[in-house]
Amino acid sequence: xxxxxxxxxxxxxxxxxxxxxxxxxxxxxxxxxxxxxxxxxxxxxxxxxxxxxxxxxxxxxxxxxxxxxxxxxxxxxxxxxxxxxxxxxxxxxxxxxxxxxxxxxxxxxxxxxxxxxxxxxxxxxxxxxxxxxxxxxxxxxxxxxxxxxxxxxxxxxxxxxxxxxxxxxxxxxxxxxxxxxxxxxxxxxxxxxxxxxxxxxxxxxxxxxxxxxxxxxxxxxxxxxxxxxxxxxxxxxxxxxxxxxxxxxxxxxxxxxxxxxxxxxxxxxxxxxxxxxxxxxxxxxxxxxxxxxxxxxxxxxxxxxxxxxxxxxxxxxxxxxxxxxxxxxxxxxxxxxxxxxxxxxxxxxxxxxxxxxxxxxxxxxxxxxxxxxxxxxxxxxxxxxxxxxxxxxxxxxxxxxxxxxxxxxxxxxxxxxxxxxxxxxxxxxxxxxxxxxxxxxxxxxxxxxxxxxxxxxxxxxxxxxxxxxxxxxxxxxxxxxxxxxxxxxxxxxxxxxxxxxxxxxxxxxxxxxxxxxxxxxxxxxxxxxxxxxxxxxxxxxxxxxxxxxxxxxxxxxxxxxxxxxxxxxxxxxxxxxxxxxxxxxxxxxxxxxxxxxxxxxxxxxxxxxxxxxxxxxxxxxxxxxxxxxxxxxxxxxxxxxxxxxxxxxxxxxxxxxxxxxxxxxxxxxxxxxxxxxxxxxxxxxxxxxxxxxxxxxxxxxxxxxxxxxxxxxxxxxxxxxxxxxxxxxxxxxxxxxxxxxxxxxxxxxxxxxxxxxxxxxxxxxxxxxxxxxxxxxxxxxxxxxxxxxxxxxxxxxxxxxxxxxxxxxxxxxxxxxxxxxxxxxxxxxxxxxxxxxxxxxxxxxxxxxxxxxxxxxxxxxxxxxxxxxxxxxxxxxxxxxxxxxxxxxxxxxxxxxxxxxxxxxxxxxxxxxxxxxxxxxxxxxxxxxxxxxxxxxxxxxxxxxxxxxxxxxxxxxxxxxxxxxxxxxxxxxxxxxxxxxxxxxxxxxxxxxxxxxxxxxxxxxxxxxxxxxxxxxxxxxxxxxxxxxxxxxxxxxxxxxxxxxxxxxxxxxxxxxxxxxxxxxxxxxxxxxxxxxxxxxxxxxxxxxxxxxxxxxxxxxxxxxxxxxxxxxxxxxxxxxxxxxxxxxxxxxxxxxxxxxxxxxxxxxxxxxxxxxxxxxxxxxxxxxxxxxxxxxxxxxxxxxxxxxxxxxxxxxxxxxxxxxxxxxxxxxxxxxxxxxxxxxxxxxxxxxxxxxxxxxxxxxxxxxxxxxxxxxxxxxxxxxxxxxxxxxxxxxxxxxxxxxxxxxxxxxxxxxxxxxxxxxxxxxxxxxxxxxxxxxxxxxxxxxxxxxxxxxxxxxxxxxxxxxxxxxxxxxxxxxxxxxxxxxxxxxxxxxxxxxxxxxxxxxxxxxxxxxxxxxxxxxxxxxxxxxxxxxxxxxxxxxxxxxxxxxxxxxxxxxxxxxxxxxxxxxxxxxxxxxxxxxxxxxxxxxxxxxxxxxxxxxxxxxxxxxxxxxxxxxxxxxxxxxxxxxxxxxxxxxxxxxxxxxxxxxxxxxxxxxxxxxxxxxxxxxxxxxxxxxxxxxxxxxxxxxxxxxxxxxxxxxxxxxxxxxxxxxxxxxxxxxxxxxxxxxxxxxxxxxxxxxxxxxxxxxxxxxxxxxxxxxxxxxxxxxxxxxxxxxxxxxxxxxxxxxxxxxxxxxxxxx
Length: 1685
Fold this sequence. Notes:
Elements: H1 7-19, E1 33-37, E2 51-54, E3 57-62, E4 65-73, E5 79-87, E6 90-97, E7 106-113, E8 116-123, E9 127-134, E10 137-145, E11 153-161, E12 164-171, E13 174-182, E14 189-195, E15 200-208, E16 218-223, E17 228-232, E18 240-246, E19 254-259, E20 263-266, E21 274-282, E22 295-298, E23 311-314, E24 320-323, E25 332-338, E26 346-351, E27 355-358, E28 366-375, E29 378-379, E30 383-388, E31 399-403, E32 408-411, E33 420-427, E34 435-440, E35 444-447, E36 455-464, E37 467-468, E38 475-478, E39 501-508, E40 513-519, E41 529-535, E42 542-549, H2 556-559, H3 561-566, H4 573-580, E43 585-594, E44 599-607, E45 623-629, E46 637-642, E47 665-669, E48 675-681, E49 686-691, E50 728-731, E51 738-745, E52 748-754, E53 765-769, E54 783-784, E55 800-808, E56 813-820, E57 832-840, E58 846-849, E59 866-867, E60 874-876, E61 886-891, E62 894-899, E63 901-903, E64 918-926, E65 932-941, E66 945-950, H5 957-964, E67 988-990, E68 995-998, E69 1009-1012, E70 1025-1031, E71 1035-1043, E72 1054-1058, E73 1061-1065, E74 1072-1081, E75 1085-1092, ...
Parallel strand pairs: 54-58, 60-65, 90-93, 92-94, 93-95
Antiparallel strand pairs: 1-15, 2-5, 3-4, 4-15, 5-14, 6-11, 6-15, 7-8, 7-14, 8-9, 9-10, 11-12, 12-13, 16-17, 17-20, 18-19, 18-21, 21-22, 23-24, 24-27, 25-26, 25-28, 28-29, 28-30, 31-32, 32-35, 33-34, 33-36, 36-37, 36-38, 39-40, 40-41, 41-42, 43-44, 44-45, 45-46, 47-48, 48-49, 49-50, 51-52, ...
């Protein structure tokens, strides 16, 4: 690329030569040019090559000189363009044109990519800013106010050397240093340009090497008290010298002057002050040279100047207030007083204050004062002031005797005198203008007509016999506040504005008050400490003073009365000073009470520069600080600050260079007393939730080792050992969220957060979880505008979340607290507070609406009303849906029917409301529930849509839902959007190549758009039109179009044209649907054009074309389609119907056979799984309409399924051991259509033909079998399978046998082993041979369950403390799935199933040994046993979820013991315990029985767990207590169970699987169940076992409340799966006696009848209440019945 001549560089060089008389210069102006581009050839792609990361960049004309070419960004979005090499140290310069002044252009340096770089930018509103971008997040390094003119070229320069970054702007031909910064984030990279908000022009980009070096030594040859003279050796080649000065070594330098000689005198300095200097010389280079080494000089000491602005004013008859201005270099001040007209003065004050009150004075007397300043060098001249005391004082006892919301009653004492009048004055603020409101002789005055919650300030004075008194002290009062008025000035009870920002509000049960803690700003930033206010009603707040007092200097620790007392004896005072001295950042304080330590604990965001001695108020420290107090009002004693938890290994840390950051934060105390710190980390990109230690003084993740100091205080671990998911979690990593506020309602955790835009308001969102550690649901915006006058809800009503007050959590009364930051300007109390009620809707929905004035009784209507009635998700276009007049509501006493009224946008629904397709929100009002309004989203769908296009091509969830109802008529059934192609049979789509999509599939049909990529400029080369064309038959159509501007650009304007006819202007904001009916098509196509009428690009969200004359052909199949999904499942789908409440799906083994319901739900797809293979299945579907009536069934559709060879091979995991002396191997049985053979063997003992050569000793042979499907000859191989081959018999020999003969009974084969007692270990040891064990297995009877049981009994031996039974490993490894070995001892019995250990786990072991004995820790009267296993006498760990072991411990209950409360505890290695849910007392066996998937110590204990809220459910109290005692169910807190709360589908499934001890391996789960969900395993097991097939569309809907009939259906299926019930044996007769039997859905009838028949369900009185939502009490009773049966 050709370059412009750099004439200005040559001229500078010439200038140097003209004015430099040294003949041989040592400094050269020539700099090595690494890159130069002046854009004269109009090409961005070569010499140098520029790379566009974003934005539209072209070369165009200079707006100030049309003959010059410059680089331009033509659009208004963020534009980034880069070029060059990977430079380390360099100088970068370029010229930038400001244009209209709205852009943010600048130089990029050390660019890594578009998310990581340094940025020297011009901001019209701020000036010049240096920032850095790290992983997409911008952090300001330096900023300088600098006036920038519009339509002006400026030259910026950036010099980077190591960690030093200097920025210059050229001013009047000279470089002006604007900042000198140090930053180590980036060491090298490319250069570039960045811009945003409007187009920009750039020219003359130049990269050179660094400026000339400079080792010149500066010296001082003279100093005075106000000047320093500097000198240095002349630099040959230098034209002049720039001098820089600082009062801090190493930083803070500012330009002070230029000298053309090698000396400089710096004047007007302060005396006795150290100054630091650096020099740079000008030599004709691109910038000045590098700076010289630092030197320092100190001015001489001198006495200070006299204090300026002295004042004196009488307070009353005996006091005068004096004040004066601070004097530089003063060590202190003296005040001298004269009462004799100035003849003599006496010293009355010596100190450091700038004010003093003289007291004990004589009334009506003139006093004169001299005020001086002094230091070590002398005392200043005197400043003078004088004042005369009043003759008498203001009336005493001036007070507010009574206060209401509209009046203040003022009273005072009478003043003696003949004629006395009183004057009361009032102002709106303490410093406002006072006006007289009363003048009279009474000593009482009622100031009426006041405004509630407003502060008023009063003074009183008197005139006695013509002489005026002094004015009283200020009396501040606030009229009683009776309502909340968000965003207005909020006065405390003394009338002063509440100053407590970033609030944390705590209710203290001891004092029965609320306490509001917040940043105390006093009109400025950063905060001056933490203030606390108290209230009993959340509206009227009393100022309680400073909760946390900041420190002014280290001297405070010895001289300040409060600070010295609080921190007496502390050795870490430097750390305390570094964290909470005045000028440091203390933000978002929050307090919770610790019930154990009885301390109030405060956490706050502590920030400032990382260097403790640097006073820069930046955000480098990023730590969390903790303080404690014995009182809620303080004073809080600061402890220390910490970095917090770290991103887990292997996960993306979005700010890896600065780990453990903690900024915006909150505290949450859970129902069980556990404390959590929630904070923004990773440069505000990720929210962390960290568990606090029991004393709340740190996070648990740094205390895994339990370290303490010499005083027993906890000490952090030396290395980080936190366990993710146990100690902490991260929420939405990289999402850039801050300002977290957490609360809990109905067992759900809610968290509101904001975006990260500094002081500017942004979109706040909330998320929900069932566990505090997640998983957390996708974020949603809760803020809702209900009136056009409301503040912007997309900016949280101009607030940022700070706290949520749990006023009455049980009844859903919560208050959102937000800050209106006023751009960070606290002057004049400009930053205000917003308190708003949080409204709970359906499910976990919440809404925050704007109320300009509201009272606390509004909270009564905010709690959730659990409506259980089902509503259609889709309704017909143009018709008002048939909505019920009564709905069912689940309350604390059960389900009740209640009246409801319906509305749309505050009016009764009309056909017009449903005249446009798409989403519609319908409101139902419940008069009997405080007129609670619940919103229900429905979708309006036409019957005969031909095209439905989501612009941009995104298959959003709502697009898929709408399209699922149009499948009968839709032309684009599977294509969301496409480009128009003439070659298609029926072409349709968008025209041209100049449009782009925006959005994502996670959005909705309005948030996604297609837009013309015209650059948002007038006369764009891309034109004005965004167009679509559709092929249609001639006729009349209805066209519906969705419009929205996701960028809310109010200047976007466009017209709509249909086949060229202008239909008028389009509205983009707010989003809307435009309808055009009767659009005629005469030429076989419809053209839809959006034509911009301004400079902003046209766009569209979606298109729907409807043929109103189309009558869809009758489809007897209802769109039902069936296809094999696997060898055991069928995938089904059907067309959805508007107005439907749901669908029933039926299955049969033959087309004309009996059909059984397999699914009932709202989805249009379903996977029927767990089916026997090699069969054809037939299906029919029906529709449930809005009245609950089921339609006729569709015609049948079928699908055939068959197993694959691989599936059969995968099912073969064991081969039965051959009998002794057997010569042929018996292979596993495979289904018809399949064969099986031996593929390979690792021993000659078994050949590949299955021939056995009996070995001399027991031998394990590993075989691989091959399965072949005969229909297509496909094959698959098994895994390697171990087969135990017994030793061959030897005539006359007893080798390999103990002579044991099994005793066979009706239910088992028993081997009695007489073990041998080891007198040393007190262990009885027994053994059996493989032959004996195999013989017993062979002879054992097959039980009804298909199981064979071999029992090995070790009889009791006196003195034995444990028993060990040895078993051949080969036999255990080859056990069949229905074979078990039971080992019975005095201490307990253990039943060993097949598959306990894998082949790899057993390895080459010949024997395994089971150990059962009394545990070493057993000291109680109830047994404690230890169970373990060994392989060849070495411990082998057992932990297998797929092979549960049954254990019994003999026990006889003591008198008074309840069997329901006998519990098995698992005793961990650290001594802690947890209940084994399956443990129960078996009275017939006289033993405690439980299952376990691991071995350890187990104890029998009696546990009585109860809750304090069970009085209303006496029918369930015993069952709840029994299950809670054994850990099957938990309370919602340590003291409460919430028996009437609803249960989610996920929680019920987890409880059901736990109660029954279900296990299964599964490799898939429902789409809405994630691997991180706490219920993932339970739901996966249930799906695998066929207990649940979900609600359709491979969804489980885990967060939905579960109905009683779904609970009973799942329970019955689970009981059949575990063979606790043989089959579904109930009939209609079993439930016919219940009054609401007709409400039982067909799919649930058999299950409910079966449970009733078997006594597991009794119903509620005369009802089953199948449609009611299941309560926690009902679940407990159900689970108890299962447990007992």
